[in-house]
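Dear colleague,

Thank you for sharing your sequence with our group. We've completed the structure prediction you requested, and as agreed, I am returning the results in plain text so they can be pasted directly into your records. Please verify that the sequence below matches your submission; if there's any discrepancy, let me know and we will rerun it promptly.
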Amino acid sequence: MGENAKLKVENLKAGYDGKVVLDGVSMSVAPGEIRIILGASGCGKSTLLKTIIGLEKPLGGSIEMLGAKVDWSEGRPSNELMKRLGVLFQAGALLSSLSVGENVALPLRIHNPGLPVRVVEELVRLKLEQVKLGHAYSKLPNELSGGMRKRAGLARAIVTDPELLFCDEPSAGLDPVTSRGLDDLLLELRDGLGITMVVVTHELDSIRALCDRMTFLAGGKVVYDGKLDEAEANGPQEVKDFLERKPGEVKQTGRTIAFNVEDV
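Please find the predicted structure tokens below.
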């Protein structure tokens, strides 16, 4: 695994309520890379993401992010490490009682409570402009379309200028045009801001638009780790079948990553 990797997962074992979902998962994500995590429904994609970002305690193995080992020895991992991450949750996860601007400001208020109100507002407006939502600062989430809610969630995920951005099914529930627009926006942010990204998705168009390297999960294991074109040419048959399927052939469980305000 690369010495300068932004994320290293080694021999990870993860699961819930005594049930092992992932066993022996390893991967390394290079700086500036967009790593796609994929596999059939129930393969453990969301479990992997939740464990990496500190919402679930690993059952074994190790995780290192941004040069620091994720340490559970004294409870939840360090807030100092977690504030260097951004997370775009599947449904956007905006709080309905807060305006878009207030939603985007949440990570700043949690991780940097001493910031002046004027500075917070300026940072929030900047991030909303970056995701093409500058006009929506005072709107409520229920006044936004599905694609706009995803972009507002993305603005919140990047408001602290994270070095690592995690996205859980960013295109889920979006029409093809809106989905492509979100993919283009993620590429713009990666290229413009140098953010390293880990994206969980089953959408073929998004995989082809975003993927630098992919990690394919099946049966709680990594069955392929590498480039998309190499997977299509010489990958395991189950990976080829997944990538060659027609839209709609793979059903999803609908599981989303739950979170609390302090997780943002």
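Summary note from our side: Residues 1 and 194 are 21 Å apart (CA to CA).

Kind regards,
the structure core
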